[in-house]
C-alpha cells in the first residue's frame, strides 16, 4: 500500500507541475510553433530610452527587439545605441537584455555612407549577436552589403518605406537581390505598402522566397500616407490573409511590432495588438 500511495502522489505531483507549466504567463505564444519571432521595433518607444523600451516590450509579452540607431541606452548611460557604442555601452546593453529576457534580433533601419562604415555596422552586428540588419542601401552599395553578409554571416533585409522612397515597390527589391548573397532578402513593411496603395498580400506573394524579416502594423486607411496605426485586426490590413500567406511561405523570421501613434502611451496599444494577433493566429 505504501508503494502504491507513493506512485499516486508522484503522478499527481507530475500532473500539477505539467498544468502549471502550460498555464504559466508568457507560455501562450502560438507563433513560436512556426519559429516566428514576434517582437518590437524599439522605434515604437522612441520617446523613451532603450532600457525603458525593453521594459515596455517585456510588458507586452514579447521577447525580441529590433533596435534602431540613435536611441539613448539609458539605465545611467547617455550613449546612443549604434555601431559606435563603447565597450562599456555594449556590456550595459547585454546586461539589460539578459535582465529582461529579451533577444536583440535585428538592427535598423540603418545604412553606411561608404564601404568602411558598412563594415563597422556589420562588425557591430556580429559582436552583439544581431541576426538581421534592416537597411535601404544605395544601389552602388548593394555588392558591398552582399559581400559583408557572407563575411560576417549576418543577414541584410531591404526595407520598404512608402513611395517615393527607392524600395517602395517589390519589383525594385527583387532586382536589388538578383545575383547577390543568399543572406540578403526583404524586410516586408506591410503598413508602408498600404500607404503606397499596394496590396500587402500581393506584395508578399511577389517576394516569395525572399522575405526574411517583417515590420508589422495595421492602419486606419489604405492608400493614404497620413494613415495612422490602429490595433491590429481593427484596421484596413487584411491581417488573416497576411498571416496565412506568411505561413504558406514558411516564413521563419522576426515580426517587428510597430505602433507609430499615441507615442506617449502606446504600450497598451502594442499589448492589445499582440493579443489580437495571437488570437487570430490559429483561426
From TrEMBL:
The yes or no answer to whether the keyword Isomerase is present is yes
Which SUPFAM superfamilies does the UniProt record give? Answer: Xylose isomerase-like
Species of origin reads Sphingobacterium allocomposti
What is a GO molecular function of this protein? isomerase activity
Xylose isomerase-like TIM barrel domain span: 55-279
Please list the coiled coil stretches: none
Signal found in the keyword field: yes
Any one Pfam family match given in the protein's UniProt record, by short name:
AP_endonuc_2
Record-given protein name: Sugar phosphate isomerase/epimerase
Question: Which InterPro entries does the record associate with it?
Answer: IolE/XylAMocC-like (IPR050312), Xyl_isomerase-like_sf (IPR036237), Xyl_isomerase-like_TIM-brl (IPR013022)
- Keyword annotations from UniProtKB, A to Z: Isomerase, Signal
Q: Which residues form the signal peptide?
A: 1-21
Amino acid at each position: 500500500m505504501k508503494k502504491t500511495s507513493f506512485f499516486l502522489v508522484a503522478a499527481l505531483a507530475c500532473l500539477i507541475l505539467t498544468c502549471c507549466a502550460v498555464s504559466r504567463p508568457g507560455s501562450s505564444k502560438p507563433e513560436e510553433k512556426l519559429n516566428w519571432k514576434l517582437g518590437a521595433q524599439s522605434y515604437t518607444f522612441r520617446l523613451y530610452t532603450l532600457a525603458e523600451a525593453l521594459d515596455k516590450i517585456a510588458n507586452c509579452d514579447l521577447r525580441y527587439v529590433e533596435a534602431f540607431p540613435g536611441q539613448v541606452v539609458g539605465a545611467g548611460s547617455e550613449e546612443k545605441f549604434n555601431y559606435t557604442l563603447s565597450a562599456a555601452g555594449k556590456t550595459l546593453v547585454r546586461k539589460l537584455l539578459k535582465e529582461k529576457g529579451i533577444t536583440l534580433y535585428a538592427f535598423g533601419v540603418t545604412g553606411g555612407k561608404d564601404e568602411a562604415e558598412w563594415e563597422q555596422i556589420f562588425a557591430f552586428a556580429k559582436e552583439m549577436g544581431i541576426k538581421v540588419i534592416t537597411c535601404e542601401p544605395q544601389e552602388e552599395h548593394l555588392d558591398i552589403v552582399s559581400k559583408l553578409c557572407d563575411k560576417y554571416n549576418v543577414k541584410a533585409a531591404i526595407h520598404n518605406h512608402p513611395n517615393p522612397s527607392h524600395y517602395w515597390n517589390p519589383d525594385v527589391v527583387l532586382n536589388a537581390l538578383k545575383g547577390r548573397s543568399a543572406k540578403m532578402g526583404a524586410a516586408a513593411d506591410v503598413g508602408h505598402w498600404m500607404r503606397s496603395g499596394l496590396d500587402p498580400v500581393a506584395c508578399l506573394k511577389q517576394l516569395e522566397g525572399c522575405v526574411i524579416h517583417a515590420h508589422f502594423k495595421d492602419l486606419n486607411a489604405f492608400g493614404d500616407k497620413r494613415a495612422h496605426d490602429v490595433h491590429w485586426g481593427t484596421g484596413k490590413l487584411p491581417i488573416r490573409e497576411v498571416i496565412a500567406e506568411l505561413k504558406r511561405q514558411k516564413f521563419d523570421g522576426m515580426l517587428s511590432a510597430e505602433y507609430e501613434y499615441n507615442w506617449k502611451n502606446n504600450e497598451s496599444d502594442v499589448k492589445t495588438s499582440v493579443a489580437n494577433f495571437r488570437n487570430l493566429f490559429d483561426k
